[in-house]
TrEMBL record:
<feature type="active site">
    <location>
        <position position="229"/>
    </location>
</feature>
<dbReference type="GO" id="GO:0071555">
    <property type="term" value="P:cell wall organization"/>
</dbReference>
<keyword id="KW-0865">Zymogen</keyword>
<comment type="similarity">
    <text>Belongs to the glycosyl hydrolase 28 family.</text>
</comment>
<keyword id="KW-0326">Glycosidase</keyword>
<feature type="signal peptide">
    <location>
        <begin position="1"/>
        <end position="18"/>
    </location>
</feature>
<keyword id="KW-0961">Cell wall biogenesis/degradation</keyword>
<keyword id="KW-1015">Disulfide bond</keyword>
<dbReference type="InterPro" id="IPR006626">
    <property type="entry name" value="PbH1"/>
</dbReference>
<keyword id="KW-0677">Repeat</keyword>
<dbReference type="InterPro" id="IPR000743">
    <property type="entry name" value="Glyco_hydro_28"/>
</dbReference>
<keyword id="KW-0732">Signal</keyword>
<keyword id="KW-0964">Secreted</keyword>
<dbReference type="Pfam" id="PF00295">
    <property type="entry name" value="Glyco_hydro_28"/>
</dbReference>
<comment type="function">
    <text>Involved in maceration and soft-rotting of plant tissue. Hydrolyzes the 1,4-alpha glycosidic bonds of de-esterified pectate in the smooth region of the plant cell wall.</text>
</comment>
<dbReference type="GO" id="GO:0005576">
    <property type="term" value="C:extracellular region"/>
</dbReference>
<protein>
    <recommendedName>
        <fullName>endo-polygalacturonase</fullName>
        <ecNumber>3.2.1.15</ecNumber>
    </recommendedName>
</protein>
Length: 478
């Protein structure tokens, strides 16, 4: 069934009635400015002639695409009721958009329902049934999608290859897949795009909330992500376009997910990841990694061996806070030699979980994020920091400034508080961790003390680790 609502014809009613009847309703629709479609085939065939399109309760036949790629420039497309799809094993997509200056929206209560449980088998795109991709926003320019309500996609939900598009207030709810075999149900996959702005999205799924594989000038803000793999750059590499640049992911929450934020590049591939900002991200219930940056992906999985062909540079991490499950790792960084640089991190405050012993080639100023914590039966209340002379060297014991001395040649650490109470540190040598008695008090200028206190407080609960230009130690009072 299909129908058309025609506007602007009242004044020529007699002419219309006198005209020969068209052989097909679709021919008559070509004269219409507003069209309501209830058939996928009619919508695909006639959408180019309509400036305002209503898709009402369309049931898309199995193995077919609701193809809206011929939409007229400047047109408005509105979904009404439930849009559904017949079952067939095929690659999809189930819906395809294309065009310029589009406005795509949903009527109250409307939903695009993939009924993904018919395909779910816990294998996603890694085997089992062939599952159709859900929605392609490809070859779209200068357009706005708002209030799109999607439910139970077979695999990946929204694929974006577009220029200057705004995706506002999407809801992607694949939570039914949690207990029914949903897998690889990415929320947004972005590639080969310039200017993609996503705001206010709610994503419940079993894979990345957002995955940016290539593109530039991309933002994701005000998002709520749960159940999946977190906020991801990558995996980058092995495609026609392998550059990710100028990305901001901010003011969002990630809950009950494997990861919080992550950047992943593919082993032995080439490309570039730069100008990445994660800001004000609240985590809870993270089961694997709070923050993970790794250059070792191959065939969709980490290898443990990083490569240097895709540098990760100019990364800002500001205000990543929240809680992890006991078995999770707070921060894991695995970089190739010299291929991670120019990072600026602040306000990383994660509780629960553990630190990693397996980080490699960490930019020196961020080594402390990967140190193992002290044993739980030790009471550490003093922090000691040396940073290659770049920052004031000081320690704090029970809120009092404590001086220090570090001699790289002698591999020793000395310090005492203002009342000459001796403290001890676990000190790393080639033979392993040893205890070191600390002596030799020294005074600090007021401005140095203030700055040192700010630096040191960030390194609470870290055991001593030595790098070419950084030493961080936890000191224990006697």
């Amino acid at each position: 069934m299909h129908s058309y609502q025609l506007l602007g014809l009242a004044a020529v009613g007699s002419l219309v009635s006198a005209a020969p009847a068209p052989s097909r309703v679709s021919e008559f629709a070509k004269k219409a400015s507003t069209c309501t479609f209830t058939s996928a085939s009619e919508a695909s065939e006639s959408i180019s002639s309509c400036s305002d399109v209503v898709l009402s309760g369309i049931e898309v036949p199995a193995g077919e695409t609701l193809d809206l790629s011929d939409a007229a420039d400047g047109s408005t497309i509105t979904f009404e009721g439930t849009t559904s799809f017949g079952y067939k094993e095929w690659k999809g997509p189930l819906i395809r958009f294309g065009g310029k200056d589009l406005t795509v929206t949903m009527a109250d209560g409307a939903v695009i329902d993939g009924d993904g449980s018919r395909w779910w088998d816990s294998k996603g795109t890694n085997g089992g049934k062939t599952k159709p991709k859900f929605m392609y926003i490809h070859d779209v320019e200068d357009s706005t999608f708002k209030g799109i309500n999607v439910k139970n996609t077979p695999v990946q939900a929204i694929s974006v290859q577009a220029t200057n598009v705004h995706l506002n207030d999407f809801t992607i709810d694949n939570s039914d897949g949690d207990d029914n075999g949903g897998h690889n149900t990415d929320g947004f996959d972005i590639s080969e795009s310039t200017g993609v702005y996503i705001s206010g999205a709610t994503v419940k799924n079993q894979d990345d909330c957002i995955a940016i594989n290539s593109g530039e000038s991309i933002s994701f803000t005000g998002g709520t992500c749960s159940g999946g793999h977190g906020l991801s750059i990558g995996s980058v590499g092995g495609r026609d376009d392998n550059t990710v640049k100028n990305v901001t992911i901010s003011d969002s929450t990630v809950s009950d997910s494997a990861n919080g934020v992550r950047i992943k590049t593919i082993y032995k591939e080439t490309g570039d990841v730069s100008e990445i900002t994660y800001s004000n991200i609240q985590l809870s219930g993270i089961t694997k990694y709070g923050i993970v940056i790794e250059q070792d992906y191959e065939n969709g999985s980490p290898t443990g061996t990083p490569s240097t062909g895709i540098p990760i540079t100019d990364v800002t991490v500001d205000g990543i806070t929240g809680t992890l499950e006991d078995d999770a790792t707070q921060v894991y960084i695995l970089c190739g030699d010299g291929s991670c640089s120019d990072w600026t991190w602040s306000g990383v405050d994660l509780s629960g979980g553990k630190a990693s012993d397996d980080c490699e080639n960490v930019p020196s100023r961020f080594l402390h994020h990967c140190c193992s914590p002290p044993s739980r039966d030790s009471k550490f209340d003093l922090t000691f920091l040396v940073h290659n002379g770049e920052y004031p060297s000081a320690v704090i014991l029970e809120n009092k400034i404590v001086s220090k001395h570090w001699s790289d040649e002698e591999r020793s650490v000395t310090a005492t508080d203002n009342e000459e109470n001796t403290v001890e540190a676990s000190h790393y040598t080639d033979e392993g961790y040893t205890n070191v008695t600390l002596t030799e008090a020294r005074s600090f200028k007021a401005q140095d003390v203030s700055r040192a206190r700010q630096e040191i407080l960030r390194f609470e609960t870290r055991r001593l680790t030595h790098d070419n230009d950084m030493l961080i130690a936890m000191l224990q009072s006697e």
